């Protein structure tokens, strides 16, 4: 089979209705597929293999809880209002968050305990989360969703985020694609308004050859043309960086360029905004899962940091250890 590759200019010239704009999360497999990929990446001699296996247990717990969980969906009036104003259909930053997310958190902690995945330090963290007052948990959720790094407790944040992911993924999986509006703000999820984690060029069916970015909260994917910055929408100064290519000797430039072309995971950098976001190619790694592969490729983050680029957005399961003074998020404080 010959892989069909479409350049940015070609894609933009097509009838937009011919390109599937969205890929809604597959409720039955969204987290289990992520767990499987995390284990696969951990088994590949990954330097953070232990953490990846723990997060695989957490993803399995998410899938188990999601199977029997149902959150309220937006009303028809709310959907139409957001459509008229080109706003995300179920915004994450809201005062009307379903309080059931805290029950989800405790169910996830139960599943992790049952799986026997608790080290002494993790057992202490779980016990602390269980005894944290509801208002304090809500404050942590608010800080995570708003990227207020100074207010985030890094150790507990992945578990809080995991509970929020179950809530929003449940809603996103039951929303009709036709109800999701086109949003005015570039680089944010049209379902929940959260920033994406990484992107993937998919193969097969109607999505063949198209690039999608994946939301870090609700797992919705939306189409973005190639060779365009997923953070600022610029088409200038886009470059691609691969870890395998960086490890090649400087003398072997031809081999280095070839390995860069064939790398299943790259960092797409933008000179206009000075950020990068990772991109994977399903024709080179069929099981590529944006959320999992982004988490498992910290070495590439170090490469990009050395090159002077900042992450366009943090990984939802990996938060910065150092706090900051200001309330507004600063990319310089995000993990690189």
From TrEMBL:
Pfam families: FdhE_C (PF24860), FdhE_central (PF24859), FdhE_N (PF04216)
The entry's keywords: Cytoplasm
GO biological process, one term: protein maturation
Disordered as annotated region, ranges: 315-336
CC terms in the record's Gene Ontology section: cytosol
Molecular function (Gene Ontology), one example: ferric iron binding
SUPFAM superfamilies associated with the record: FdhE-like (SSF144020)
Compositionally skewed regions (Acidic residues) per UniProt: 327-336
Residues annotated as domain FdhE central: 188-226
Organism domain of life: Bacteria
Record InterPro entries: FdhE-like_sf, FdhE_C, FdhE_central, FdhE_N, Formate_DH_accessory
Domain FdhE C-terminal: 228-318
Domain named FdhE N-terminal: residues: 19-181
Main location per the UniProt record: cytoplasm
Keyword Cytoplasm: yes
Entry's localization field: Cytoplasm
Similarity section: Belongs to the FdhE family.
Alphabetical list of NCBIfam families matching this protein: FdhE
HAMAP family given in the database record: FdeH
Function, as annotated: Necessary for formate dehydrogenase activity.
Listed name of the protein: Protein FdhE homolog
Gene designation: fdhE
């Amino acid at each position: 089979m010959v892989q069909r590759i479409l350049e940015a200019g070609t894609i933009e010239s097509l009838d937009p209705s011919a390109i599937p704009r969205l890929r809604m999360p597959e409720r039955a497999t969204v987290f289990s597929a992520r767990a499987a990929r995390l284990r696969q990446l951990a088994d590949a001699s990954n330097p953070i293999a232990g953490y990846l296996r723990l997060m695989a247990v957490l993803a399995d717990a998410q899938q188990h809880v999601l199977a029997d969980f149902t959150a309220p969906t937006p009303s028809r009036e709310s959907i139409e209002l957001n459509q008229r104003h080109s706003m995300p259909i179920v915004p994450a930053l809201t005062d009307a968050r379903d309080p059931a997310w805290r029950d989800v958190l405790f169910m996830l902690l139960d599943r992790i305990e049952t799986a026997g995945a608790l080290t002494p330090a993790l057992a202490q963290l779980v016990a602390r989360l269980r005894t944290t007052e509801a208002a304090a948990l809500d404050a942590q959720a608010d800080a995570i969703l708003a990227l207020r790094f100074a207010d985030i407790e890094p150790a507990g944040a992945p578990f809080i985020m995991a509970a929020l992911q179950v809530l929003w993924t449940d809603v996103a999986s039951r929303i009709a694609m036709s109800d999701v509006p086109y949003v005015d703000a570039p680089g944010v999820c049209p379902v929940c308004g959260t920033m994406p984690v990484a992107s993937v060029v998919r193969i097969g069916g109607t999505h063949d050859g198209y690039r999608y970015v994946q939301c870090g909260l609700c797992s919705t994917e939306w189409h973005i043309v190639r060779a365009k910055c997923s953070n600022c929408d610029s088409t200038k100064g886009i470059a691609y960086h691969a870890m395998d290519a960086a490890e090649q000797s400087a003398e072997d430039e031809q081999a280095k360029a070839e390995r860069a072309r064939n790398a299943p995971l790259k960092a797409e950098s933008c000179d206009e905004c000075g950020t990068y976001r990772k991109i994977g190619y399903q024709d080179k790694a069929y099981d590529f899962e944006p959320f999992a592969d982004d988490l498992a490729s910290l070495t590439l983050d170090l490469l990009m940091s050395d090159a002077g680029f900042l992450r366009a957005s943090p990984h939802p399961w990996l938060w910065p250890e150092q706090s900051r003074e200001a309330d507004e998020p600063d990319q310089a404080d995000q993990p690189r």
